[in-house]
Amino acid sequence: MPPSVPHFRIPLDLPHAGTVALRIAYHLSEKTANSIVPPRAVELLELLAPYRRDGENPPSAEAARVVLEAARLGRLIVDDIEAGGLGHDRLGQAVRNLFECLELGEEGATISLRAGENPRSALRAV
């Protein structure tokens, strides 16, 4: 089994995940023609909007469903970032933060590098 990558472990925070999704959409729109937010980023925003608005996590069964879908969308967004050569440090940091908010910090620390996060960033230190 490979060693664990340094990562932050924070409790589930879907409201903040919604805020981070806004950052991801912003950074992606900067890289697209006419500042268009890519469809998968829009899906992520729509998924997390109710929790961002309410400022609370939903009951555990709903939260588990939302985490699975948000992580799936996050992975697809990273695939799109790589395919389009859109990655940069701030976008990679936002991707890492999204996964941290979903209680998937270790995956976030890994996948954020594919989205352009600087591997020597002080923000990666634990």
Note the topology.
Layout: H1 14-30, H2 39-54, H3 60-84, H4 89-101, H5 105-114
Q: What is the gist of this entry?
A:
With 126 residues, this protein is mainly α. 64% of the residues lie in helices and 0% in strands. The longest helix has 25 residues, at 60-84.
Written account of the structure:
With 126 residues, the protein is an all-alpha fold. It has 5 helices and no strands. The protein has one domain. It is globular, with a radius of gyration of 14 Å.
Question: Strand percentage, roughly?
Answer: under 5%
Shape: globular
So how many helices? 5
CA-CA gap between termini: 21 Å
Total number of strands: 0
List the secondary-structure elements in sequence, H or E.
HHHHH
Average pLDDT number: 91
Largest sheet: none
Ranges where pLDDT stays below 50 over 5 or more residues in a row are none
Helix content: 55-70%
Q: What structural class do the secondary elements suggest?
A: mainly alpha
Spatial extent as radius of gyration: 14 Å
List the main descriptive attributes of the protein structure presented here.
5 helices; single chain; 126 residues; mainly alpha
